[in-house]
Amino acid sequence: MIFYSWTALEENEREPAGTDARDAAGGGREAGSPVAMGITDDRGRAMRAGEETLGSGRAVVVVIEAVRPAMAAHTLAPCYVRMGVGWLGWRSPAGEVAWHRFFLRSDPDDRPGPGRIRA
Asked: pTM for this structure?
């Protein structure tokens, strides 16, 4: 089953205000600490939760990632593993929330080789 992990990030206070919120993802403005987060089985619900947080002004950017339940290898504790696709949300200058889909590239060290088992 696929779940959606969402995290809303506030603006880093060290950066000057007045730049476009999309710059937070591109480096013009740094996203700071998480102000809200959650897990849901519905992408639309994750987007609505992120939009509410952006609309309240508590966050400048929201990151949603598709994840699947798993177990940590060393501790057998339950966790979520990224599926490789996500959505980045920010408020446009017009006040609307814009979403950009992105894909995570895998690290060459993550590829299974001879004798390696992918977790």
From this structure: 0.73
